[in-house]
């Protein structure tokens, strides 16, 4: 006897909590949600607390954040856990990407730390890297759907551009001359790790 796979739950129109206190991330997610009949509201706007990210994978942390926001708000909630994985650093900073920026979320410091570690690793280690984005969509009844996207590139130094947020000024995606920090938002949205994950989410739940 074969068991049929569980059908993916569809998301109807209405309010959707974006379970993040990162303004840049909230803006990006809201832009990617445009035209899908949902009304994004940030966790910060609802005064929801930020949970401790205790997961060991991007998916686990995204699900943790989405579940808490859905439970506390009584609304469907979408959480993103994303990060930069540098090959020469064994995949670091990975799930600790935000934490490398310290309590003040100073990504200038975080970018300098990555560059220092790359210099210590030596030229032969290379500068290959990728961004990962895990998205988790949770409902108040505990149901959850998860998706993951990725974009590959190389690390550059010094930082270039003032668009985007986080590590964007030091990440140049493969096949492009500009860093994410130099790209207009529309260009980044068309090919980023977050866009990749969103394409999978949109195809599944809308």
TrEMBL record:
Its EC number is 3.6.1.66. InterPro entries: dITP/XTP_pyrophosphatase, ITPase-like_fam, RdgB/HAM1. Its cofactor is Mg(2+). Keywords: Hydrolase, Magnesium, Metal-binding, Nucleotide metabolism, Nucleotide-binding. Substrate binds at residues 20-25, 82, 165-168, 188, 193-194. It catalyses: ITP + H2O = IMP + diphosphate + H(+); XTP + H2O = XMP + diphosphate + H(+); dITP + H2O = dIMP + diphosphate + H(+). Mg(2+) binds at residues 52, 81. It is an enzyme of class 3 (hydrolase). Pfam families: Ham1p_like (PF01725). Belongs to the HAM1 NTPase family. This is dITP/XTP pyrophosphatase.
